Amino acid sequence: MHHREQYRWSSTGHLIERVISPARRHLWRRERQLTATDLQLPDRELWILHPHGEPAPSNVAPSGVQLLLLDGSWREASAMAQEVAGWGRTVRLPMTGESRFWLRAQADAARFSTVEALLFVLREFGLEAQHEALQRQFELHVYAHLRARGHKDAALEFLRTSPIATVYADLIAQLDVRRPR
Predict the structure, then answer these.
(1) Residue 120 and residue 112 in contact, taking contact as beta carbons nearer than 8 Å
(2) Which one of 47, 128, 136, 150 has the largest count of C-beta atoms within 10 Å of its C-beta?
(3) Spatial distance between the Cα atoms of 24 and 68, rounded to a whole number of angstroms
(4) pTM
(5) Please, are residues 46 and 66 in contact by the beta-carbon 8 Å criterion?
(6) What backbone torsions phi and psi does residue 54 show, to the nearest 5 degrees?
(7) Model confidence over 95-121: pLDDT tens digits?
(8) Is the pLDDT of residue 44 over 60?
């Protein structure tokens, strides 16, 4: 995670760390560089997910892979990618569709947040149950942040195409209850 990203509460890197227990956050600073040995796990191939990587190999067991996700703005992630190049295999996945990360302006709809990239990885490995659980948490993350920022109309529009509208219907209804002052 880029050191500036740690202060952005909309960061999906924070969400990953909260929801996926083995996930660890490593802060990147240009002046205090990390090394591959700071984070590599034994007996795992390190994959660095990046749009300019090679296609991900097929038929690889998830238990043999350690994934490095670069969390920051696109410019920050590019700087981090240059530093970690060579630490492991830089891979890309076919990522299609539009981003559901409505909390920050994207240069184009095909750019995805860190957690969305992880969702593509989970699907690539066939981990559907984990994908579904993380997708719901991500959708709730975006919806709650839209509401917290006072963007109720955008939150309602987001909810129209979100699975959380039915999965968390009771919770969402409670958010609309007017509280006494």
Answers:
(1) yes
(2) 47
(3) 10
(4) 0.90
(5) yes
(6) -80, 160
(7) 888 889 988 776 566 688 899 999 999
(8) yes
